Amino acid sequence: MVGRAMRLFLTRLMLLGKGAVRRLSVQHLMDRFGKVGKEVYLNMPVVVHQPESIYLGDYVGIGENVVLRGAGGITMGNRVLIATGVAIVSAGHPLVPPRWGVDVLKPIHIGDDVWIGTNAVILPGVNIGNGAVVAAGAVVSRDVPSYAVVAGVPARVIRTIEPPKETRGDAAGFDSVRQSQ
Ligand SMILES: CC(C)(COP(=O)(O)OP(=O)(O)OC[C@H]1O[C@@H](n2cnc3c(N)ncnc32)[C@H](O)[C@@H]1OP(=O)(O)O)[C@@H](O)C(=O)NCCC(=O)NCCS
């Protein structure tokens, strides 16, 4: 038997429509993060473990089917793009058993203006410098220098990027740089 309050709630949701239900559930999830800056987009479904240990800056876009495993801590700077299917995992298990119930936690730091390509995997303890690009399908097991492009398994630097002349303070700055390229 559905109670009156629940019936009212469900009716309201139906009236609001599917989009509103999605927005409510995304907002509910984001409320549980350690920090969420302005203009952060989660394109559901995104799988999030331990959201309270995940800290997101401003202008962060996270694609569909991304997995964020936050136990060891995940921080992202501003203007970060995470493509579809990326896994960012800050927890693992020891090489030597026993492993069951034993977690090895290492924080992951992702700088400003980082782009992570589809299906890349970011392993525990990795730091990704400002402006770096992680190619699609890369498995990142070591730190990535700022303005480097890394690719492959394990990820290696395949090129470096000329940093933009002006430091960008916000998304508007980003647009003007993009238009000038
Ligand atoms: C890394 C990337 C940005 C291209 O960078 P680039 O510097 O322009 O790369 P190029 O195409 O000039 O390729 C440079 C070399 O890297 C290799 N390479 C490019 N992408 C690669 C990848 N994902 N994995 C492994 N090697 C890759 C190329 O084969 C090439 O090798 P070669 O010199 O032996 O021929 C692009 O390949 C990529 O992975 N984009 C991600 C796209 C994506 O995920 N989009 C999701 C929506 S945002």
How would you explain this protein's 3D organization?
The chain has 181 residues and is α/β, with parallel strands linked by helices. The protein has one domain (34-163): UDP N-Acetylglucosamine Acyltransferase, domain 1 (3 Solenoid). The protein contains 3 helices and 19 strands. A 7-stranded mixed beta sheet has the order 2-5-8-13-16-18-19, with no helix packed on it. It has a 5-stranded parallel beta sheet with strand order 1-4-7-12-15, with no helix packed on it. Strand 18 (148-151) and strand 19 (156-160) form a beta hairpin. The chain is globular and about 60 Å long. Coenzyme A is lined by residues 83, 117-118, 133, 135-137, 149, 151-152, 158-159.
List strands and helices in order, with pairings:
Elements: H1 4-16, H2 18-30, E1 35-36, E2 40-42, E3 47-49, E4 54-56, E5 60-62, E6 67-69, E7 74-76, E8 80-82, E9 87-89, E10 91-92, E11 104-105, E12 108-110, E13 115-116, E14 121-122, E15 127-128, E16 133-134, E17 139-140, E18 148-151, E19 156-160, H3 171-180
Parallel strand pairs: 1-4, 2-5, 3-6, 4-7, 5-8, 6-9, 7-12, 8-13, 9-14, 12-15, 13-16, 14-17, 16-18
Antiparallel strand pairs: 10-11, 18-19
Bound molecules: coenzyme A.
Strand content bin: 25-35%
Helix content: 10-25%
CATH class: Mainly Beta
pLDDT < 50 stretches: 172-181
Global structural class:
alpha/beta
CATH architecture: 3 Solenoid
In whole angstroms, how far apart are the ends? Answer: 61 Å
